[in-house]
Specification:
This protein has about 375 residues and is an alpha/beta fold. The protein has two domains: about 170 residues, D-Maltodextrin-Binding Protein, domain 2 (3-Layer(aba) Sandwich), CATH 3.40.190; about 150 residues, D-Maltodextrin-Binding Protein, domain 2 (3-Layer(aba) Sandwich). Helices cover about 45% and strands about 15% of the residues. Helix 3 links the parallel strand 1 and strand 2. The strands form three sheets. A five-stranded mixed beta sheet has the order 2-1-3-12-4. The protein has a five-stranded mixed beta sheet with strand order 8-7-9-6-10. Strands 5-11-13 form a three-stranded mixed beta sheet, with helices on one face. It has 13 helices and 13 strands.
């Protein structure tokens, strides 16, 4: 039998089987439906063939260049897993979100295209998107494991923006106040207003709120809650509390863990998780105003002109799959956005539970953050120099 005849025969057999199955359904049984996230996705043979071809081309490209804020432990875990599974190397370019953004803009302005995939906070991505430095991400997602809506706690692929150009891999319940348990009793602080008590003057450390990061996230949360004017009044009063300020996330956590400061404002969630895991005298404070469910440094997207397009597609799909997401979440020790994400070693305080008060970070949140950063620079800019 020739190839054309074989295909016709297979199609005919498939049609007959489908008809037989349909006739065997009990009366009143609804027809099977395709989950919304899988509509338009080819049948298994179709996506599998496309995926296999992409992996083969990715191996020829040999590597993916990953601009990321991730720590060394996470980078090592990702590189080893990618090389073992696909034989593809991962070259890392690291830095804070604003640094990576500035570098990428400089490269594109000079006609240099090095970066493939970017990973940072959501605030960084809003700027990259507006500068035209991001590519279309949604069409690159092909694995059914990724596209299945039930895979995600949000009930669908957790795109942060309306155009679906970047995704939040993490869903961390950010709490913006932490205490040294030896210096601050449980219940001594119940609201942000309590931070203005004169007893805490000179005893609080704030992470840099003048650029994207946990400091700006805390202030943006307050701006969503109170509005910009009231938030500005609060920050001006807070600035008079003789704060310790730093943009070094590890140093910020160490200050409170070692007792240099009693209270940590806007601590980096990753550092908090690490230090709590080490049994240091640190604890999150339950604040009546609540917190933010945020992707923190877990947003991911592809550049507008990736140097290794096939390796980029393989990398993105793998990072969002159960396997890749598990590697990532286990290394960062933060709450994953997939329902099947590992939870071992993750601080339970970072998981939003029924009854918790929080605001969900979205693109509007990160757009507001730009106004917040302008405001915080007016108040704290001189102190950060």
């Amino acid at each position: 039998m020739n190839r054309k005849a074989s295909i016709v025969a297979l199609v005919l057999v498939g049609s007959l089987l489908a008809a037989a199955c349909a006739q065997s359904l009990p009366v009143g049984t609804p027809e099977p439906t395709v989950p919304p996230g899988l509509k338009g996705i080819p049948a298994r043979a179709g996506w599998q063939e496309k995926w296999d071809n992409t992996v083969a081309l990715a191996r020829k490209e040999g590597e993916v260049v990953y601009y990321t804020t991730a720590a060394a432990e996470t980078r090592t875990a990702i590189a080893e897993a990618m090389n073992k599974k696909f034989g593809i190397g991962v070259e890392f370019v690291t830095g804070r979100g604003p640094e990576l953004s500035a570098r990428l803009q400089k490269e594109y302005s000079g006609g240099v295209f090095i970066a493939d995939v970017v990973n940072s906070g959501g605030g960084t991505f809003t700027g990259l998107k507006q500068a035209g430095l991001l590519g279309q991400l949604e069409p690159l997602l092909v694995l059914p494991d990724v596209l299945e809506p039930k895979s995600w706690i949000t009930g669908g692929v957790p795109f942060i923006d309306r155009e679906r150009m970047f995704i939040g891999m993490l869903a961390v319940y950010e709490k913006y106040v932490a205490r040294n348990t030896d210096l601050v009793k449980e219940g001594e602080i119940a609201s942000y207003k309590d931070l203005l008590n004169p007893k805490w003057k000179g005893k609080m450390a704030l992470f840099d709120p003048t650029a994207t990061g946990s400091g700006a996230s805390m202030v943006t949360f307050l701006a969503r809650l109170w509005g910009l004017d009231r938030t500005k009044e609060f920050l001006m009063a807070l600035a008079n509390q003789d704060l310790g300020l730093t943009r070094d996330k590890r140093l910020h956590a160490e200050w409170t863990a070692k007792g240099k400061y009693a209270i940590s404002l806007a601590p980096n969630p990753e550092m908090m998780a690490e230090f709590i895991d080490l049994k240091l005298p640190l604890a999150h404070v339950k604040i009546e105003e609540g917190g933010m469910v945020n992707t923190v440094g877990g947003a991911i997207g592809i550049t507008a002109k990736p140097a290794h397009p096939n390796a980029s597609q393989v990398f993105i799909n793998w990072m969002l799959s159960k396997e890749g997401h598990g590697v990532y979440v286990s290394s960062v020790k933060l709450t994953g956005a997939r329902v099947d994400a590992p939870t071992d070693g993750i601080d339970k305080n970072m998981i939003a539970r029924p009854g918790d008060k929080f605001i969900q970070a979205d693109e509007e949140f990160f757009i507001l953050q730009r106004d917040v950063i302008n405001m915080t620079n007016q108040i704290f800019g001189a102190l950060m120099k």
